[in-house]
């Protein structure tokens, strides 16, 4: 992500054929798929909580990681191109509108992250402790729980940016 | 800030001078989508960018930007 600059963005834009994704429906589906990719990590945390340590938990986690990486790789490419770099580019490469948009996106995402952390805290507080006030959780579940929270916090701004995208100005002759 | 609309004549000035969005964007150092958003009234520029746009076209700022909608050409209204 850090290595993306305007030249690379232009290259990605040329390679990607994103006419369908630029429509409101296309953007909506892209954002939903991004949400699904993040949700898989929460599912993985639940699977680990219920089944770890076991082969089922391990292979489910790896499979969901793979699915999430493939889906999110595609979603990220689409959103970087459609947003014109609002997500992806370094701040110094953005103009004033893009910078303002990125700051709005991060402010909105921070609210989302706060709610997610509040919810996660509540879930941990409500987990059954077996009556001895000691919470026994498989290490894999604890890791996946923190990992899911981390990637959600990290990638939520991309999805918020995707939700806020508007139709691009039509291309002109000579543009 | 919502509801504070700034009208502009960038599209007209650009068309009149045969300048593409990308050329104008390159001259101003902004993304071409930003020019599109400005023209559609979906983004109000900073004072700095507004002054640079006026300077680029070589006209006073009030020729390019206004808080009131610009009269249509031929409507008979006096253009300031």
Walk me through the structure.
The complex is a heterodimer of chains A (175) and B (80). Chain A has 175 residues and is mainly α. Chain A contains five helices and no strands. The longest helix of chain A is centred in the middle third of the chain and has 31 residues. Chain A is elongated and about 70 Å long. Chain B has 80 residues and is mainly α. Chain B has a single domain, classed as Orthogonal Bundle (434 Repressor (Amino-terminal Domain)), CATH 1.10.260. In chain B, strands 1-2 form a two-stranded antiparallel ribbon. In chain B, helix 2 packs across helix 3. At the A-B interface, helix 4 of A face helix 3 of B.
Write the topology of this structure.
The complex is a heterodimer of chains A (about 180) and B (about 80).
Chain A: H1 6-15, H2 24-51, H3 55-82, H4 96-126, H5 139-164
Helix pairs in contact in A: 2-3, 2-5, 3-5, 4-5
Chain B: E1 7-8, H1 10-17, H2 21-28, H3 32-39, H4 47-57, H5 61-64, E2 65-66
Antiparallel strand pairs in B: 1-2
Helix pairs in contact in B: 2-3
């Amino acid at each position: 992500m850090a290595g993306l600059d305007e030249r690379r963005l232009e290259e990605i834009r040329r390679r990607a054929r994103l006419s369908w994704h630029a429509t409101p429906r296309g953007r909506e589906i892209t954002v939903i798929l991004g949400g699904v990719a993040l949700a898989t990590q929460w599912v993985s945390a639940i699977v680990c909580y219920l089944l770890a340590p076991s082969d089922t938990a391990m292979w489910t986690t790896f499979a969901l990681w793979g699915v999430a990486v493939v889906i999110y790789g595609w979603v990220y490419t689409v959103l970087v191109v459609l947003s014109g770099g609002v997500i992806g580019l370094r701040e110094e490469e953005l103009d004033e509108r893009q910078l303002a948009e990125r700051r709005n996106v991060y402010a909105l995402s921070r609210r989302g992250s706060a709610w997610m952390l509040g919810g996660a805290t509540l879930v941990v507080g409500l987990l059954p402790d077996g009556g001895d006030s000691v919470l026994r959780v498989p290490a894999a579940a604890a890791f996946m729980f923190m990992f899911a929270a981390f990637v959600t916090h990290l990638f939520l701004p991309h999805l918020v940016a995707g939700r806020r995208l508007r139709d691009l100005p039509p291309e002109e002759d000579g543009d | 800030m919502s509801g504070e609309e700034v009208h502009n004549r960038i599209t007209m000035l650009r068309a009149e001078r045969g300048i593409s969005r990308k050329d104008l964007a390159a001259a101003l150092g902004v993304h071409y989508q930003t020019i599109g958003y400005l023209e559609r009234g979906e983004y109000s520029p900073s004072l700095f960018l507004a002054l640079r746009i006026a300077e680029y076209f070589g006209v006073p700022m009030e020729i390019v930007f206004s808080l009131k909608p610009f009269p249509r050409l031929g409507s008979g209204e006096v253009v300031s």
